[in-house]
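Is manganese (II) ion placement plausible here? Inputs below.
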Amino acid sequence: MSKYDEIVHYQDYDELLKILKNSNNNYDLRKIQKAYNIAEEAHGDQRRVSGIPFILHPTSVACIVAQFGMDSDSIIAALLHDVVEDTEYDLKFVRKEFGKDVANIVDGVTKISKIKLYSREEQQAENIRKMLIAMSNDIRVIIVKLADRLHNMRTIECMKEQKRRDKSRECMEVYAPIAHRLGMKAVKDELEDLSLRYLDPVGYKEIEDALLLKENERDRFIDKKKKEIIKASKMPKDKITVYGRVKSINSIYRKTFLKGKTLDEIYDFFALRIIVDDLKDCYNLLGVIHDLYTPIPRRFKDYISTPKPNMYQSLHTTVIDRDGIPFEVQIRTWEMHQTAENGIAAHWKYKLGFTRIVNNKKAKELDENIKRIKDVLAAQIDTDDSTDIIRNIRNDFDQNEVYVFSPKGDVFNLPIDSTVIDLAYLIHTEVGNHMVGAKVDHRIVPIDYKLNTGEICEILTQKDSHPRRDWLDICKTSSARSKIRQWFKREKRDENIIEGKMMLERELKRSNISLTDEELEELLQFMLKKNKFNTVQDLYASIGYGGIQLWKVLPRIKEEYNTKFKKDDEPAPTIVQTVHKRKHADSGVIVEGMDDCLIKFAQCCNPLPGDEIIGYITRGYGVSVHKRNCTNIPVDLTKVEEPERYVKVSWESNINDSFHSTLEIVCADRTGVLADVTIALSSMRIFINSLNSRSLGSGRAVVTATIDVFSREHLDTVIKRLQSLREVISIKRF
Ligand code: MN
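Reply from A.M.:
I modeled the complex. Tokens:
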């Protein structure tokens, strides 16, 4: 007979009430009754696959949650947890009737239930675990979800084989580790044992049978030890509880099947647990045990003075009795026992408010218990298996990471502030190299959109599309950056050579160095060897795609120039450090009467080649270039205060750079308009820097798009093309 066959799988509302009344907590029974009535009515005569009335599932989950010692809101949420998903009642209704906390828990549980959680890779499983915790802005979401899953696992027998295996894997990979992290050992053990039963039925049965065989032997042994210990402790019988502890089947399985030990080799197959009222009795009893039996060196652990990160406290020791049989003893108080079994949930019994662990803007509201976890984490305690747990929990609390889904449900983990470009390159280099845009939660977003945890992000690609140099400034991760550089290195060698040579010459010219091509090549020879380049072309190409950063090597090149090329009567070139900004240095604008001055394009009007322009000499930032008819430029320049600051500027004849331009597109307000605009733009290979839309009411919306174009003419073509779209009403250039 199986260990779990005896468990009463379903508990009804009367049993819930019994649990609530027998606890010392003050529950809001009126509100709980109301929740039950709603759940009962909502589920009506729905049935489980097994034929059992559905309402018995939420009442059973509520019982589990109540046994954890959770608060009224958690119990109400447990009763209602399938209502929003399966019936006509919605979240708004729950919020109105039971407040935002209950609604938030129900919403969280519903969301998590929709995600397919098991995966092929361990790394994915870890991401999923972290993300689940990150998604649950209220830790009670996880606790109710664990109870829901536990009940489903207890009653999974009637499901189809494949479904049982899938759910079991999810439990092993995701839910049991989370329960472990929250210190909920009883839940962890039961979830693992139930899962193992479906994942390896034969192995499970073997251990179960062996345990049954050893049962008599064990009971006799435990009984004897119990008497010896109680007698030696000289404590009154009602002050000390000693019992034999059966290891979970999964933990024995791991030791036998995975570590290749036989059942007889398992060290602490026999284990005792001693529970007392007071902390001081724990240490007294440890002395008694060590007098009575021989302690095995280095098997003693004091988790009372240094608790595990998941708040676990106990004394552990392994001893050998006079017959040479080793066994483990755990000593703890009742309060520690509660924590050991129910972990974080146990603390609801002793607390007043409620807790949000992560995503909490009001960090001050963190409750004492959570502070305790964090203190323990900060203390970097030194126990054998804790470092890993510490690191994992740290990651759970790490606000420097975001977790996003692909439309298929894969989870990706990125540093905070990562953009869709970073995600595209994380998914696959080719996805990044062919990205044209992205959708987040089914809406088109600009290319510099920063991802948030829980968002579903789809990368849009096009076969003949390719990366852009300015992505290097937008993306956040170094891996995306290096992949973009790689692409330019590989695909655009000729361009890179021209670009790199121009960049270098420009910088040298700034320092009054002018050389013929041959001289320049000679000057650069020393750089070739150092960087393992064969030709100067390789060096130019590298500068062009950003593999070598010019500002880093420039001082060294100038030094080389001084020693090898400088004529004696020539003054040493001044080393002018310029921050490399392509657009500014190579602006394509000529300022009358001024060479080599810093050019800035005004953000207010984004002038394009072909526009009539005017320059304004700023204080310290060079010349800012506006459209002549920009609203920030006075119409009559003869009447301004400092007319000398306005200068004539004109466009150079051959400009290869692109320029930002912002369009306001008024169009019909219907879904898909943004997508249409995006598609139209990318079919013209126009790069979109940002794209937003807002409704104007009365069926109209305005789309604001900042795009890159080469000239006024180019922009006019784009506008014409957009105007041909059916939904577009009018287009205005900013
Ligand atoms: Mn459920």
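Short version: The first helix runs from residue 13 to 22.
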